[in-house]
Amino acid sequence: MTGIGAVVPMAGAGAAALLLGLLLTEAMRRFALRHGITDRPSARKAHTRPTPYLGGVAVALATLAVGTAVALARGVFNPVLAVVLGGAAIVCVLGLIDDLRQLGPKVRLCVETSAATLVVVVGGHPTVFDGAVDAVLAALWIVFVTNAFNLLDNMDGAASSLCVVIGGFVCLTVPAGDPIGLGVVMAALAGAGLGFLFHNRHPARIFLGDAGSLFLGFTLASAMMVCHGGAAGLSGPASLLLATLVPTLDTALVMLSRYRESRPLLQGGTDHIAHRLRRMGLTVPQVVQTLSAFAVVGCLSAMLVTDGLLAPGIALLAACAVGIGSVRLLLEVPAVATASPRVAVPAGALADGGARTALRWRLSAVSRLRHRAVRPTGVPHSREATNAAALSPTAGTLVAPQ
Questions:
Q1: Gap between the Cα atoms of 256 and 262, Å rounded
Q2: In this predicted structure, what is the pLDDT of residue 262?
Q3: Which residues in the chain land under pLDDT 70?
Q4: How far apart are CA 236 and CA 3, in angstroms?
Q5: Whether the Cβ atoms of residue 195 and residue 17 lie closer than 8 Å to each other
Q6: Distance of CA 315 to CAs 229, 232, 308, 356, 400, Å?
Q7: C-alpha to C-alpha distance for 115 and 87, rounded to whole angstroms
Q8: SS (H, E, C) the chain
Q9: Which of 176, 153, 182, 179 has its CA nearest to residue 85?
Q10: Can you give the pLDDT at residue 49?
């Protein structure tokens, strides 16, 4: 757990990054608008004016600058931290390039896997199978969380809010004294995310873009992997899963939904957790609050596992049960918002059975329509639905009644 001596530097790093992130986000917003680096309005989107993508660059700059400066000032900057920050910077540049000119999934996955592998080789990983399999699984998990955050960035304030929650959790679980400097970097990331959130809360004035969502996911996943590098048995995997339960469930939900509907897995759509919660009647702020509360519960459970107060096997079983139950319930919510169809009733139905026969005919037709594979509609504030080859969306806001 975090030592008392590391609390003050973390608090200072968080406050400095918050202020810097707040200022840089506004500067990047104006720069993007001036140079046309925006998500432009269209009939398929909710916003009425060009909205810039470069908020993620501001978060990355604030995190890297403040985290590095505080770590150097404390004399705890070492090769492991350098690899984590270097990999995060590379992934951020990768996302920025994808924002400006879309890259294929193969290029993105190749770069992300290379950066994740280097983090695992230098920073270590939990030991479960006691072999090279552990290292491979660790690298794949970092890549998975990186892209899960990218997928999760589909509603105003969602990804940045979870960044603050999970980043704060990592600050509390770094080794005593924060010998590597991960604690101050995570505090800086949480602070920068909070500063960005002032501009990204609904209705958003700026979006993270792929540069930001990939940066958040990679930095959080890499830091957690390094923090659990010496763990043996199921405690490490259990803590990692619990802390990232929300993005993990969101990815599982959309992949399963698209598979069941025979849609391309990488083709976007309004089938994420946030979108389904909106269709259940929640407003955008309420959706973000719900996701954040769920993330807090997951992180607190992960802390209990890390402290040895909760058996990792029980925690994994509970997480799987909650996850499966949540996904099954959310799958019952339509993947797209559609108006109730007007079904024509054959004249013979009225003649043969009257009103009850006609009603049964309509219900049967509506049921068939609900279970028919549907093509996804556009996701407001997102490029996901218009780019079937893209790996994941940028931030967005779903249109629904308040």
A1: 10
A2: 81
A3: 1-5, 40-49, 268, 336-402
A4: 20
A5: yes
A6: 19, 16, 11, 50, 36
A7: 5
A8: CCCHHHHHHHHHHHHHHHHHHHHHHHHHHHHHHHHCCEECCCCCCCCCCCEECCHHHHHHHHHHHHHHHHHHHHCCCCHHHHHHHHHHHHHHHHHHHHHHCCCCHHHHHHHHHHHHHHHHHHHCCCECCCCHHHHHHHHHHHHHHHHHHHHHCCCCCHHHHHHHHHHHHHHHHCCCCCCCCHHHHHHHHHHHHHHHHHHHCCCCCCCCHHHHHHHHHHHHHHHHHHHCCCCECCHHHHHHHHHCHHHHHHHHHHHHHHHHCCCCCCCCCCCCHHHHHHHCCCCHHHHHHHHHHHHHHHHHHHHHHHCCCCCHHHHHHHHHHHHHHHHHHHHCCCCCCCCCCCCCCCHHHHHHHHHHHHHHHHHHHHHHHHCCCCCCCCCCCCCHHHCCCCCCCCCCCCCCCC
A9: 182
A10: 65
Q: Say which amino acid occupies 195.
A: G
Strand partners, 164: none
Residues listed for the chain: 402
In angstroms, the CA 393 to CA 386 distance is 10
Locate 165 and state its tokens: 């929650």
Give, in degrees to the nearest 5, the angle at Cα 208 between 269 and 379.
20
User: What is residue 337's predicted lDDT score, i.e. its pLDDT?
Assistant: 55
Tokens of 159: 């990804």
In 3D, which of 279, 217, 250, 269 has the Cα closest to residue 396? 269
Integer Cα distance of 164 and 283 in angstroms = 21
pTM: 0.82
Residue pair 183/174 in contact by the 8 Å Cβ criterion: yes
Look at the block and give the residue holding tokens 């925690």: 315
Q: Which amino acid is at 313?
A: G
Question: Residue 293 is which amino acid?
Answer: A
Residue type, 64: L
What is the end-to-end Cα distance of the chain in Å, rounded? 42
